[in-house]
Amino acid sequence: MTPSEPPAIGVLIVDDDPLVRAGLAMMLGGAPDIRVVAEAGDGAEVLSLVDRHAPEVVLMDIRMPVMDGLAATEALRARRHAPEVIVLTTFDADEHVLRALRAGAAGFLLKDTPPDEIVDAVRRVARGDPVLSPAVTRRLIARVAEASHDRRRARAGDRLALLNGREREVAVALGQGRSNAQVGAVLHLSVPTVKTHVSSILTKLRLNNRVQIALLVHDAGLLDDHEPG
């Protein structure tokens, strides 16, 4: 690495299947800007390995025997300066995936995702971008039946009431999957102003990433009459 090159993105792979770990390590190892810093076979190992190796991104399997990926994600994302988490799953309508996203995961990938897309996802979350399209979010929420839907909508509405009008508009635009530049174009704001609003939303709502904002907007039903143009 030369002084002008950014440091490689450190990745921790967490999966109870050694073959899956080996495959992920091989495909990520082929990217010059990514390095696999450690591997774990269970969620119980995650916190100590993060302390030891300080990865920027964790690839987290959901279903593991001792501590599952959901519990590990919740424990990890409750920390300050936590690495980003990408959930690995074989199902795109698993209720555990939705819970992991609510806990602060940056997105999820199916285990049969093409290698180049997995590499791209790691790069994107390391930059702070989610790896979840609005269409996938809507399908995931629609397919995971929740008896508490009405209560969840009411709670989400109460939380979003903490925002001012402009912040609410920005939140809806994020729920539509717009980038900062697209939000700025639609709302006639500069990108730095959009970033300021996003930071304020995260602080007021005690959230830690844009995916959680988007989920809250979905929960509140604010996208029912606001489809992206």
How would you describe the overall organization of this protein?
The chain has a five-stranded parallel sheet, sandwiched between helices. Helix 1 links the parallel strand 1 and strand 2. The termini are far apart. It is 51% helix and 12% strand. The mean pLDDT is 86. It contains eleven helices and five strands; from the N terminus they run βαβαβαβαβααααααα. The protein folds into two domains: 133 residues, Rossmann fold (3-Layer(aba) Sandwich); 70 residues, Arc Repressor Mutant, subunit A (Orthogonal Bundle). The chain has 229 residues and is of the alpha/beta class.
Features:
5 strands; about 50% helix; 5-stranded parallel beta sheet; Rossmann fold; about 230 residues; Arc Repressor Mutant, subunit A
Offer a concise description of the structure.
By secondary structure, the protein is of the alpha/beta class.
Please write out the topology.
Layout: E1 9-14, H1 18-29, E2 34-40, H2 46-53, E3 57-61, H3 69-77, E4 84-89, H4 95-103, E5 107-110, H5 115-126, H6 134-143, H7 149-160, H8 165-175, H9 180-187, H10 191-205, H11 210-219
Parallel strand pairs: 1-2, 1-3, 3-4, 4-5
Helix pairs in contact: 3-4, 8-9, 8-10, 8-11, 9-10
